[in-house]
Amino acid sequence: MKYLQFIGLASVVFLIHAFKLENTFQKQVPVKSIEERVDSVMKLLTLEEKIGQMTLFTSDWAVTGPTLREGYREDIKAGKVGAIFNAHTAAYNRELQRIAVEETRLGIPLLFGYDVIHGYKTIFPVPLGESASWDLDAMEKAARIAAIEAAAAGLHWTFAPMVDIARDPRWGRICEGAGEDTYLGARIAEARVKGFQGDDLSKDNTLIACAKHYAAYGAAQAGRDYHFVDISERVLRETYLPPFMAAKKAGVRTFMTSFNELFGVPASGSRFLLTDVLRDEWGFDGFVVTDYTSINEMVDHGIVANEKDAAELSLDAGVDMDMQGATYYNYLLELVREGRISVARVNESVRRILRIKFELGLFDDPYRYSNTEREKARVFAPEHLEAARDIARKSIVLLRNEKNTLPLSKKIRTLAVVGPLAANQKDLIGSWSGAGDYKQSVSLLDGIKTKLGTTVKILHTEGCAITGQDKTGFKNALALAKTAEAIVVAVGESADMSGEAASRSDITLPGVQEELVKALVATGKPVVVVLMNGRPLAIPWIAENAPAILETWFLGTQAGHAIADVLFGDYNPSGKLTVTFPRNAGQIPIFYNAKNTGRPMDPLDKYTSKYLDVPNTPQFPFGFGLSYSRFEYGNLKTDRSVFGADSSPLKITCTVRNLGPYDGEEVVQLYVRDRVGSVTRPVRELKGFQKIFLKNGESKTVAFTLTADDLKFYNRDMIWTAEPGMFDLYVGGDSNAALTTAVELR
Ligand code: BGC
């Protein structure tokens, strides 16, 4: 079976008995290229079987959308489906694969997809939280581990990474991406693709990745999921497309279309996106899958009259595989017979899909990803849990720490651990937690207990629920708080308040949680607010009054240990926000790299761009995060004051000193402002960052390089170019970095 080749007519026999043949015989067959092998399969397929390869159905395990098909097993047997999602575990997928391989005419293996978004069983922080680590190696490792576990559990394909830039915290899916910045989003997209796909797809521990949702899904109007998008081509190309392009360059094998429309055409029917840009401009040679029933939804969008026309539009646009909508399944044969879609067009898609099945080695051994022994050994492997704890603590952002409230002393005698999320396990794994089992997650309370042992008296009560108006629990919470030396209060959202179909118009703390925090702060004791949430929250009172605040997102399986590591100083927090936290929802959209306007804010001038009731500034800016140490920046220099497109890169250096009192990491950020452009330019743009470790008292020189290419944008004629002129450079620990110098590009 290993060296099975598909070569011309002889391969009919190989295919029918593909997986029953003797190895010795097959090993003598010369190795053919993937293209030749794809050719040989193409010759054998009927049109119906080709359409089957272009069809993806969910199993009955989990459904992430509105419809459920009955009888997908019969479809597999009939060769009418080429890929299945929401089926996992080695044993289950082996059985489905057996049907495809042994009971269909040609025995073509199925491709198994699943939303392995931030872990398969070992769950890592939600992607937005993980991005706050700014640690690309750690993010790559998290994706690698997710792939190692999932690939042992029968899976070949993850519907990740989500690389949608998101600037609206009302949108629940902001939780699934890397935040608001395009440059950072592109670097994280590369890291995650590399992590999932590894360096060799034919290995048994890699998954093909999927860059989603192509494109501009994060720009949904009013932050409402599935709502329409209306942005310019400039914004699309400068802000939303670069992370997709980066994923493509990193070798991502699949793209998923988005639900939204763009320029009046739903993405699943957009020839501009799927052919002009993706294929012709970028040269993508993998396959494109739709999002769940998004071809069918083009009827509701009002761009086609019925599903058959929708199938035609999407085929014509460049979609290769229909997820769950059965539009290709139901209408493609007719469309070809009526001459509305050419066989050549169908062949193109089928070739792309088969090529990837070959790349994964599925024709050599269709069961290679379904190995129960390997599954047992790899899922929840101790080194995976250790890595999950490490990236979880790196993702925590210290938002406030008045009078060095943190770290707490381990010698404390009595600690109150309160709040609806303090003992919670269920929400810690966040939305899209794959096959994650929340019962395996470590609650904050358990994390603290494990760290402190029995020497500290730990008091716990919820105080209130996440939602609802019931305050009867306050009394008990306050009673405990009064007897404690310090209070840790865990508040936030439930996991299902972010993710898909989970937009909120009010992004404050739900229920009476803020009142609970206020009552606890009023005791005058040291209070640490531990936030758990999937989006930026508007918490103005807490931001200005709570002694200490830790943003912990939903940190996954090891959450409690990771938070305890930070609370008690075993890890010095180093996370930085990758998305702006507004003061209130009325400031949305608010992101750091906005334009200056012709009337930039001047507090003394009424007729400038501002609100009457709230400052323009956010509560916490992009790039912000404190440490238990203080870092001092200085000595910003460039190796020249003028540089050119054909000269060597500009070298920028600065020194960063850890003023103590702890060892710690700092994310050193480089921002640029293009003073004058042929079109208006953002007030700042991130162009580089480095996460460095400095011992207490240590100082390091950090170097960045900048080329003319890094300064390119779409000029007035929509040409991607760098324009000569003056550029301000800023280096520091957040997007308000004050240390500055200027250079000229000639
Ligand atoms: C989501 C996708 C997901 C798909 C499959 C859809 O509803 O938008 O992100 O990959 O379901 O579960």
Helix percentage: 25-40%
Overall structural class, as computed from helix and strand content, comes to alpha/beta
Number of strands: 26
Describe the main β-sheet briefly.
6 strands, mixed
Determine the number of helices (DSSP H or I, runs of at least 4 residues).
Answer: 23
Query: How much of the polypeptide forms β-strand, as a percent range?
Result: 15-25%
What value does the Rg take, in angstroms?
27 Å
* Ligand identities: beta-D-glucopyranose
Distance between the termini: 61 Å
Q: Low-confidence stretches at least 5 residues in length (pLDDT < 50)?
A: 1-29
Strand order of the largest sheet: 11-16-15-14-12-13
- Mean of residue pLDDT values: 94
Query: Oligomer, anyone?
Result: single chain
Which overall shape is indicated by the principal axes computed on the Cα atoms? Answer: globular
Q: What does this protein structure show overall?
A:
With 746 residues, this protein is α/β, with parallel strands linked by helices. 30% of the residues lie in helices and 17% in strands. It has 23 helices and 26 strands. It has a six-stranded mixed β-sheet, with helices on both faces. It has a five-stranded parallel β-sheet with strand order 4-3-2-1-10. A five-stranded mixed β-sheet has the order 18-26-25-20-21. Strand 1 (55-58), helix 5 and strand 2 form a beta-alpha-beta unit. Helix 8 (136-152) runs antiparallel to helix 18 (382-395), helix 14 (307-317) crosses helix 15 and helix 19 packs across helix 23. The model is unreliable at 1-29 (pLDDT under 50). Residues 64-65, 115, 159, 212, 291-292, 500 line the site of beta-D-glucopyranose.
